[in-house]
Write a structure and sequence with these properties.
Layout (H helix, E strand, L loop, with lengths): L5 H4 L2 H10 L7 E4 L5 H17 L5 E6 L1 E2 L4 E2 L5 E5 L1 H12 L3 E5 L6 E9 L7 E7 L16 E5 L2 H5 L6 H15 L6 E8 L17 E8 L1
Antiparallel strand pairs: 1-6, 2-5, 2-6, 3-4, 7-8, 7-10, 8-9, 10-11
Helix pairs in contact: 3-4
Length: 223
């Protein structure tokens, strides 16, 4: 995964809200600056507690970020903790937040079936590039950096997806949805990160709009 600028990252939460405003399904998340004060920390725990009270089985994940401000790049080897029970969240979050910017999300990694990145371009003809993995369980965006089974696909139209008989009918539906969704976004030359889950997830977890409610967009950024 490429490094990106410190200034760009400062707007990460705003970019997620930007996606939401454009009717993209985003994760249920809470963002904390490094070494947040007790008031902000307690708000994060209260947010997680509300989710826990309504769905006691829901686990949490924590992504962490740190920067070399002189070079203004993200350090990509920061901890990523997954499958955290609510009862353990306070301790793990308090430890990590002392050293890192943290983002908590309430998604279930084991439910991931397809995950990866999508690149859109403003070139003519426009080409959309997919890089993803397909797994029976726990497909995660980071898998594209380590898996031997990464699928790379460059297409300039929906028909190119429809003609490729390599993909299962379900995969074709997901790829077509992703193609149309990212190309409807008002910005181009953008990289999106996504996961397709086996059940409704993200802020649309209470919906049943297939496949929209099962695809979570984690990020978009320029390249």
């Amino acid at each position: 995964m490429s490094n990106f600028s410190y200034r760009e990252y400062l707007q990460k939460a705003e970019r997620l809200k930007d996606l939401q405003e454009e009717n993209f399904n985003i994760p249920r998340f809470y963002f904390l600056d490094q070494n947040s004060n007790i008031e902000e920390f307690n708000k994060a725990i209260s947010w997680a507690e509300n989710i826990h009270n309504s769905s006691p089985e829901q686990i949490f994940n924590i992504r962490t970020y740190q920067y070399k401000k002189v070079r203004e790049i993200e350090i990509s080897s920061c901890p990523h903790k997954t499958d955290i029970l609510f009862n353990n969240l306070f301790q793990i979050l308090s430890t990590l937040n002392k050293s890192y910017i943290t983002m908590i999300d309430a998604e279930t990694p084991d439910n991931g079936l397809i995950a990866g990145t999508i690149l859109t371009s403003s070139s003519k003809p426009s080409v959309t590039e997919f890089e993803f993995v397909v797994k029976p369980i726990r497909a995660m965006v980071r898998d594209i950096n380590s898996s031997k089974d990464v699928i790379r696909l460059s297409v300039s139209s929906l028909t190119e997806i429809e003609r490729d008989f390599y993909y299962s009918p379900e995969e074709v539906i997901i790829l077509e949805f992703l193609y149309k969704k990212v190309n409807s976004f008002y910005k181009k030359n953008i990289i999106f990160e996504f996961t397709y889950f086996n059940s409704p997830s993200g802020i649309l977890f209470q919906s049943n709009i297939f496949p929209e409610s099962s695809v979570v967009f984690w990020e978009y950024r320029g390249y």
